Amino acid sequence: MSTQRTRSRLIADLRRVGREHSDATVLFHSALAAAVGLHPTDYKALGVVDRLGPMSAGELARHTGLAPASVTNLVDRLEARGFLRREADPKDRRRVLLRADVSQLTGNEFFASWQRATTRMWERYSDTELAVILDFLGDTAERLRARTDAIAGSGMADAKTDAARQDSRHAGHAD
C-alpha cells in the first residue's frame, strides 16, 4: 500500500472515529446529566462555570451561546439544586458572580471511578503522545467554539465562510 493511500485511509478512519467519539461524548454527558437530575444544557453550563471560574450571567451567556433569558432560568434551576451560588463580585459589589459547586458530582463514586479509569488509560501513552493528544483536543475545542459562535451568531452560510477561513489559517499546521 502506498504512503498516500495509507494516509488517505488514516484520514478516513479519523473522520469515522471522530464522529463515533463525538456521538459517544454527547450521549455520555446526556446520561450523566440525567443521572444527577439535570438537563444536558444545564450540566454543560455548570461545567463551563466550574472550569472557567466565577462569572456573571452575561459571561455565561457568551460562553454558551444561550440567550440571556435562558441563562437566567438555567441559573435559577442550578441554584435551586445547589449547583450554583450567586455572590457579590468582590471588585464591584453591584455585580453578581456565579460560582459553581460541583461537590455533589465530585463526591459521586461514578465520577471518581471514571477519573481513575481515564488516568489509567493515559498511563499507556508517552509524554510525547500525550502532548499530541493535548494539542489535538485543544485545537478541536477551539475550532468547535469558533464554528458554534459562527452558527449561533449569523447562521450556516456565514459559518461555512468562517470554516473556510479557519481551515486556511490552520493549513500550515501539520507539525
From TrEMBL:
It comes from Mycolicibacterium arenosum. Residues 155-175 are annotated as: Disordered. Residues 159-175 have a biased composition (Basic and acidic residues). This is MarR family transcriptional regulator. SMART domains: HTH_MARR. It comes from the Bacteria. Residues 7-142 form the HTH marR-type domain. Coiled coil: none annotated.
